[in-house]
Design brief:
EFC10; two-stranded antiparallel sheet; EF-hand calcium binding domain 10; mainly alpha; 2 strands; calcium ion binding; EF_hand_dom; EF-hand-dom_pair
Length: about 70
């Protein structure tokens, strides 16, 4: 999974084109990618998630992304 895949995923969730996604969308994306478990307690700080924040979080777990990519 490279930068273009991460951007495409973010853009699919940001259907309004505002440049942000909700915390719920963010958390679900991390779960889908296998980067967050049900047990993890991510705290919603009330801020919207930007593309930069999303990329930062996804890139912290490159091994998990490689495992996810092999599934498909």
């Amino acid at each position: 999974m490279d930068n273009s895949n991460i951007v495409a995923m973010f853009e699919m969730m940001d259907s309004s084109g505002r440049g942000t996604i909700s915390f719920v969308q963010y958390k679900e994306a991390l779960k889908t990618l296998g980067l967050c478990t049900e047990d993890e307690d991510l705290q919603d700080d009330g801020h919207k998630i930007t593309l930069d924040k999303f990329k930062e979080e996804v890139c912290i777990h490159p091994a998990s992304l490689q495992a996810f990519a092999r599934k498909f």
